[in-house]
Each structure stands twice: as structure tokens, then as C-alpha cells.
């Protein structure tokens, strides 16, 4: 009986892990950042998400300006990306 319960629990946890790995990231939060992998020689990527209409719902991003304690909101909606590069180097972002 104990082995059967242990097997069921392990099967459930294994299934949850597989589900977590296959969910597509939509970029609405830091945790759900869209993975971007740039290979050697690649310097740019294009994302054509419509952040005006949803779902998923994209929101403004709050940030503090340097030298101030006041929070500011971005004019547009934020999309989170996780950038992976095979070698170190400078990153310049054009918005």
C-alpha cells in the first residue's frame, strides 16, 4: 500500500515537472520571461507581440529614476525577455 501511494505521488510530481517545462512563456512577468537565445554571429531578434490587446494582459512597468525616490510608469507595456548569449559582450537595446 505504501509503495502504491509513493508511486502515485512521484507520478504526479513528475507530470507537474513536465507540464512546467512545456508551458510557453508569454513575457507578462519576470518568472514568465520569453527566452531569447542568440547564437554566434546573431545580433538581433524581432518580437511581434501585440501588447495592446489580450490575453495575455501586459501592464506598465514601475521604476525609480536615478537620484529620486518617486516611481515612474513606462508609457508602453512591458514584455520581459531572458536573453542568453554564448559569449560575453556588450548589449545595446533599441526600443
Strand order of the largest sheet: 1-4
Q: Tell me the structural class.
A: alpha+beta
Poorly predicted residue ranges: none
What order do the SSEs take from the amino end to the carboxyl end, as H and E?
A: HEEEE
Tell me the Rg in angstroms.
Answer: 20 Å
What is the helix content? 10-25%
The biggest sheet amounts to: 2 strands, parallel
Descriptive report:
By secondary structure, the protein is α+β, with helices and mostly antiparallel strands. It contains one helix and four strands. It has one helix at 2-22, and strands at residues 34-37, 62-64, 71-73, 81-84. A two-stranded parallel sheet has the order 1-4. The chain has a two-stranded antiparallel sheet with strand order 2-3. A hairpin with a 6-residue loop joins strand 2 and strand 3. The mean pLDDT is 80.
Task: Please sum up the structure shown.
The chain is an alpha+beta fold. The chain is built from 1 helix and 4 strands, in the order H-E-E-E-E.
Properties at a glance:
95 residues; alpha+beta; two-stranded antiparallel ribbon; extended
Secondary-structure blueprint of this entry?
Layout: H1 2-22, E1 34-37, E2 62-64, E3 71-73, E4 81-84
Parallel strand pairs: 1-4
Antiparallel strand pairs: 2-3
